[in-house]
Amino acid sequence: MLLDAVYGRPVAVISSDGVDFGGALAYGRKAGAALRRMTFHERARALKALGAFLMERKEAYYALSTLTGATRRDSWVDIEGGIGTLFSYASAARRELPDERFWPDGRVERLGREGTFVGRHLLVPREGIAVQINAFNFPVWGMLEKFAPAFIGGMPSLVKPAPQTAYLTERVVRDIVASGLIPEGSLQLVTGEPGSLLDHVEEQDVVAFTGSAATAARLRVHPAIVGRSVPFNAEADSLNASVLGLSVKPEDPEFALFVREVAREMTGKAGQKCTAIRRALVPSHLVEAVTEGLRRELAKVTLGDPARDDVRMGALVSVEQRERVRETLEKLQQEARVVISGEAQLLGGDREKGAFLDPTVLLCETPLTARGPHELEAFGPVATLLPYDSLEDAIHLTKLGRGSLAGSIVSRDRAEATELVLGMASSHGRLLVLNRDNAKENTGHGSPLPQLNHGGPGRAGGGSELGGLSAVRHHMNRVAVQADPTILTSITREFVPGAEVQEDVVHPFRKSFDQIQVGDSLLTHRRTVTEADIVNFAGLTGDHFYAHVDEIGAREGIFGKRVAHGYFLISAAAGQFVSPAPGPVLANYGLENLRFIEPVGIGDTIRTRLTCKRKIRKDLRPGETRPTGVVEWRSEITNQDGALVATYDILTLVERARDSFDPQSETEAAPA
């Protein structure tokens, strides 16, 4: 029986009795075949549609979230933050990944002298299931931040939420399944005790865990995980620290920012965040001022029923959790004394049956020799002030936590911030430098972002989640493929230098996006570079660098003669391969990977080979009516001896046919 955190009333009954854990995992692995058949872009579109579907239903989730003790602001981070992660991964996948079922990784490696033997890494989906064990504090975000990269990576997920808030997770999962927007079996949910779940994991599976460091250590050595080499990622609790810089004065904006940030991290989610500030490092001469500042800031915090608009902090997740925090507080007081506490008036809720706990601040006056503040985590609205006298001591104190998810430094002094960041970096997963210059835009000490790493060394679990597409990699196998250039081009659908090309009487710029094929190539006419070319280009651009226009200086330079501007070569090459009449090529979209290899002097003759390297289909944005795609061309400029003088990739925007993914298409399915 689960009770709500505010009034202690029954909410739900959960159980895993009768669940066939082995069967659930086997079903997910089999159902995952449909997910793996989708390309990255197809998965991204499904994830984006799912995010929109859930956003329309968010108010139902907010209503349930108040029962967990969370305020509207707390729930926003969990609910809309979780849904926002779906959008973030959908966007990143469409922007950075190919429209394929595999992900070419890194560059092509030339393995033979003649270029007939090459190699490249590919990332392909693991043919297993992602088992995701989540904590109680973020029942929506905690699930979706693991599900999103797994789904993009082509792996189905089985979610095991913490029991205290599983009813909110269950509601979201029920809506996801009912949406029909993702392949059947892409997401399963198991509530209650995990039973023999991990006994059934296999070599192609992955396990991701969020929770206590002690539980992570126990699961990490599970016989099935160890014996079958199952990848295990842990994100555990940690004793995160925030450092107020020695350079900060009480009248500085940074002083107020530090006080507000510590108070906010103590009271957000009632302090039940694995990234919350547990240790506030303060210059010794500012301890009294910071204490008074925190006392004033925390006095503004109203405690009670989080469904009320006038309540800023709700309850802990359960009475049992509150008692665990109280027990830890008692242990901490063996080496620290309470400097801020008290029992605030309760605005709604039940003080006895609900799980309320007032914010508490301790002061440890001997932080360099104490152990408790660096080893014991009160997972609630509790923080300990730790005085320090030098930046070296501050760095040492942060490291006594033996690995943290997040740390912060409040300072505007560049040298101080640099010393602290570099000193703390090895023991942290993420560091925030906060000051008046980024105060309006910063997301806070304890806010993980989809684009950045979430995880940390040591006690923090030694794992890594989020961090953009790096989280997708966790769900894929990296394989090295060795072949000749033509075969490797066929496999990867990206042109490999040395592969066979297709030359056509139709100029490639006269073909639409749909007609162009990887390997389509054009070898241009020749052009001899003259002194007039160099002089005219210098006059046009104002680039009178001595290597181009000074005969004596150039003779004494590294080339021993005057040479053409590198950008002249690119311009001349464009004149060789461009088809000038209006057609399907709409614009030059960019230029990448430019390298100048050999100098071109007066009298040298150049020609260019342009070859389609890969194609990237672009979705129509709202308001756009002309479907397009990006074609990436490999451009190779050679001289009269056949030597390569320059190479680069050109991106062109090319018109394509409309398809079912375009918003204005008549064949597109109506949104759910």
From TrEMBL:
CDD domains, sorted:
ALDH_MaoC-N, MaoC_C
Q: Sorted alphabetically, which keywords does the UniProt record give?
A: Oxidoreductase
The residue ranges of the Aldehyde dehydrogenase domain are 20-421
- Which residues lie in Gly residues bias regions? 455-466
Source taxon at top rank: Bacteria
- Which is one Pfam family of this protein? Aldedh
Stretches the record annotates as Disordered: 439-466
Mind telling me which InterPro entries this protein's record contains? Ald_DH/histidinol_DH (IPR016161), Ald_DH_C (IPR016163), Ald_DH_N (IPR016162), Aldehyde_DH_dom (IPR015590), HotDog_dom_sf (IPR029069), MaoC-like_dom (IPR002539), PaaN-DH (IPR011966)
Q: Which residues form the MaoC-like domain?
A: 518-619
Cite the NCBIfam families for this sequence: PaaN-DH (TIGR02278), PRK11903.1 (NF008868)
Name under which the protein is recorded: Bifunctional aldehyde dehydrogenase/enoyl-CoA hydratase
